[in-house]
């Protein structure tokens, strides 16, 4: 199967492209490279451009007429930045996505797997959330994801569009071959911050928020290995029709996580164990838009996609550390 990946030169997009190739599929990449890296698209069909460029999307489909599904991963994703720059987030994540979806429908390519987020969920009493749990996004970034879910449900009800919406939890780790991973010079991701502090690039790792209603006062997250997340996308494109048929839906949401919650302090302890040394820490108030957190109930992913996570928290940490040692060779900076 040939699959179009928007944002396919990014962190998770490139790992997903590798997982598709490993399963015998062919990824075609479109990326603006505002955030993505051209190095991550090497050896793959690659188009440099904007997802809202209808002429470009038309050309891609004309040149790859066997595209059967689109994985839409292109988005701005940094929560504090979304608070500071909401216009850019609504423009790029919502408005441009509308153009993409409408053009895909007009080209007869109505199957879309959409990257959504577990940050949509309201705080649950035990922090476990199902796909039907209440939503209460706390940042412009998260609200763009909720808006796009609403758009996809509405368009799927009135057009040929059909969508599998994957609500990601917290990806960690890298491509198992260490060809791609987190690329920001100073990653906003927690594991990237830990790696920088552990290796001395930063003075300390900052725990933001210590008075949350969790077992140790720090935020709780469901940390899933990037390779497991990529495998979930393979399952979603391979079982696209049967998944929606089993749910009697034209558009459906599926949580993608491990099913286990880990606090920031627990993550720090696991990181130090894998790293084999201590990490200096600071404390600070929660960042603008930060949520207490949640972990995924993943029963639906198992039932309709035949997918479960396979790699551990420690596997993800080890992968992130290995990429931290490798990325200067790939990207030219530590």
Give a verbal description of the structure.
- This protein has 334 residues and is of the alpha/beta class.
- The chain has two domains: 2-172 and 222-256, NAD(P)-binding Rossmann-like Domain (Rossmann fold), CATH 3.40.50; 190-221 and 259-295 and 311-331, UDP-galactose 4-epimerase, domain 1 (Alpha-Beta Complex).
- The chain contains eleven helices and 15 strands.
- The longest helix is centred in the first third of the chain and has 21 residues, at 86-106.
- The radius of gyration is 19 Å and the shape is globular.
List the helices and strands and how they pair.
Layout: E1 2-6, H1 11-22, E2 26-31, E3 45-48, H2 54-63, E4 67-72, H3 79-84, H4 86-106, E5 111-117, E6 128-129, H5 140-158, E7 162-168, E8 170-172, H6 190-198, E9 205-208, E10 220-221, E11 223-225, H7 226-238, H8 240-246, E12 251-256, E13 262-263, H9 264-275, E14 281-284, E15 295-296, H10 299-305, H11 313-331
Parallel strand pairs: 1-2, 1-4, 2-3, 4-5, 5-7, 6-15, 7-12, 8-11, 9-14
Antiparallel strand pairs: 10-13
Low-confidence stretches: none
- The averaged pLDDT comes out at 96
Q: State the end-to-end distance.
A: 36 Å
Main sheet strand line-up: 3-2-1-4-5-7-12
Helical content class: 40-55%
Q: Tally the helices.
A: 11
Q: What would the principal axes of the Cα set say about the shape?
A: globular
Q: At the fourth CATH level, what is the homologous superfamily of the largest domain?
A: NAD(P)-binding Rossmann-like Domain
Q: Please identify the structural class as seen in this structure.
A: alpha/beta
CATH structural class of the largest domain: Alpha Beta
The fraction of residues assigned to DSSP E strands is 15-25%
| CATH fold node name of the largest domain | Rossmann fold
Radius of gyration: 19 Å
